[in-house]
Amino acid sequence: MGDNPDNPGANQQPVEGGNNNNVADQRCPVINVSPPAQLIMGDSPVENWKLYKQAWSNYKVIAGLELRTEEYRKALFLHNLGREAQLIYNSKDLPLLKAGDVVRIKPFKLGDKIWKKGEVIRRLNKRSYLIRTDEGTFRRNRKFLRQTAEQSDLFVPYPPDEAAENNAEV
């Protein structure tokens, strides 16, 4: 193999005992490969995520990140994501609520500042709950509910009937 200015890797010899794929990798060195641009959520976050994920997969191969530790790859990935995506990555799911839990509900009407007390009737789906308050029953997303240690004073049963108590004593 002679010197070829159009193909600088042409004068490299194959590694003894290696396969042809390694030879191709040696002949096409990549220097200063930039990672993909930061993920921008924008108007179509699902589509943007798919494109970013594909670009990141390609970058991992080109930059040889498979040879690095998992910790290094994760740190580089998170660094490259960008602030907005990191906030989403670091967010945690809210704990599930169960029937009977007492909650405070974020004000629904503009200008209201008081979080009203309510009680969970049941969970409707992954993030939605049926809540009973003194003003009625409402469906609310979990992010608008805060669990509280307060007792539910909204639905206290009626006091026992005196006549029923008198009959029980006879």
Short description:
The protein is of the alpha+beta class.
Structural notes for this entry:
With 170 residues, this protein is an alpha+beta fold. The chain has five helices and five strands. It has helices spanning 20-27, 45-63, 70-81, 83-90, 162-169, and strands at 102-105, 116-123, 128-133, 136-141, 145-147. A five-stranded antiparallel beta sheet has the order 4-3-2-1-5, with no helix packed on it. The longest helix is centred in the N-terminal third of the chain and has 19 residues, at 45-63. Residues 7-20 have low confidence and may be disordered. Residues 1-27 are annotated as: Disordered. Residues 9-24 have a biased composition (Polar residues).
Output the keywords:
170 residues, 2 domains, alpha+beta, elongated
What layout of secondary structure does this protein have?
Elements lengths: L19 H8 L17 H19 L6 H12 L1 H8 L11 E4 L10 E8 L4 E6 L2 E6 L3 E3 L14 H8 L1
Antiparallel strand pairs: 1-2, 1-5, 2-3, 3-4
DSSP, total strands: 5
Shape: elongated
Helix content class? 25-40%
Task: Write the element-wise H/E pattern from the N-terminal end onward.
Answer: HHHHEEEEEH
